[in-house]
Specification:
Blueprint: E1 5-7, E2 13-15, E3 18-20, E4 25-28, E5 31-34, H1 40-56, H2 58-61, H3 68-84, H4 94-108
Antiparallel strand pairs: 1-2, 2-3, 4-5
Helix pairs in contact: 1-3, 1-4
Length: 109
């Protein structure tokens, strides 16, 4: 079966006789793609994932027998990696860099 792709009016797409709805954002391969090209939603999701990883590691963080240097390594390897995963293609603005730095400082404190 061959799909027929037709573009009708501006912003209206029909595939195999069905109209595809227009959306402002969607998830593709784990990244949130926004119509306006911003990465706000994707950054918010990555910060949430980093906070979840930070909470999971509370056993290491709160254990007084674990050296401070090892706690820092755990943070860099697990939390920072989760936050920055797939971020190499983000078109960041100063405001978004600031948000990432604020999130990191909250977790480190």
């Amino acid at each position: 079966m061959l799909f027929q792709w037709k573009e009708r009016r501006a912003g209206e797409v029909t595939l195999d006789g069905r109209q595809i709805p227009k959306v402002d954002k969607f998830e593709y391969l784990g990244s949130i793609i926004q119509q306006n090209g911003d990465v706000d939603e994707d950054i918010n999701q990555h910060i949430r994932v980093g906070c979840q990883k930070w909470k999971v590691g509370s056993g290491v963080r709160c254990d007084k027998r674990v050296p401070l240097g090892l706690k820092g390594e755990v943070y860099r390897m697990i939390v920072r990696s989760a936050v920055l995963y797939r971020s190499e293609c983000w078109p960041l603005k100063k405001m978004e860099v600031q948000r990432l730095m604020v999130a990191e400082m909250r977790m480190v404190r």
